Amino acid sequence: AQTVTQSQPEMSVQEAETVTLSCTYDTSESDYYLFWYKQPPSRQMILVIRQEAYKQQNATENRFSVNFQKAAKSFSLKISDSQLGDAAMYFCAYTNFGNEKLTFGTGTRLTIIP
Amino acid sequence: NAGVTQTPKFQVLKTGQSMTLQCAQDMNHEYMSWYRQDPGMGLRLIHYSVGAGITDQGEVPNGYNVSRSTTEDFPLRLLSAAPSQTSVYFCASSYNEYSYEQYFGPGTRLTVT
User: Which residues of A touch B33 (CB under 8 A)?
Assistant: First the structure.
């Protein structure tokens, strides 16, 4: 079974600074997807960014980018120019290709310091 | 499109009571699923469905029943609520099992006393 580990329960960053959230995963599959979801206080799960395992290029979405290290099974999220609206729980998640069952990490609570 | 909707938003039950959490989507998605979120444990899959008439168990199915009679609806039934089922429940859907993006509903916070 696949597992996803987020070893940082809480992180904080000064507004406008950069922060990196860590995620490692374990799988024997070669074809899979990785995701970062944001959950603000509203509780809504919002997809931030996704990475296909077959792509070597790291995904980027505006201020959000990932560092995907397939051999190390590492998938970190970098948030640049942090904004107050980035404050939320962030979940790393995994799914096999062709299997929509998501496996989530335990989350990292990100606080933005004004 | 309303996306994925869930009712109710909040519910308090007494131990032993039954209830149904409703989930509906208007995007003609084939795949639907239910997760529960507990503090410090992330989201865990309860049941899922790859299409009308087809359901299967996820990681934590005990105490929950599902059925999928239409593409749009995927209700989650608690037959005899227990305090261990106190949680936030999320419904999600995607176009099919090969699409990579799942759309989540707003969640239902359930408390069992």
Answer: 100-101
The letter for the amino acid at B70 is: T
Q: Which residues in chain A touch residue B41, judged by CB atoms under 8 angstroms apart?
A: 106
Considering only the beta carbons, identify the residue of B88, B97, B99 that sits closest to A43.
Answer: B88
d(CA B44, CA B74): 17
Output phi, psi for A64, to 5 deg: -105, 130
Q: What is the pLDDT of residues B24-64, one digit of tens each?
A: 999 999 999 999 999 888 899 999 999 999 999 999 999 99
For residue B99, the distance in angstroms to the closest alpha carbon of chain A comes to: 8
Share of chain B above pLDDT 90, in %: 87
Query: Side chain identity at B21, as an amino acid letter?
Result: L
Find the Cα–Cα–Cα–Cα dihedral B53, B56, B62, B65, rounded to 10°.
-10
Please say whether the beta carbons of B91 and B33 come within 8 A.
Answer: yes
How many whole angstroms separate alpha carbon B30 and alpha carbon B107? 20
| Residue of A25, A45, A108 to mutate when probing chain B, most B C-beta within 10 A | A45
Contact B32, B12 (CB under 8 A): no
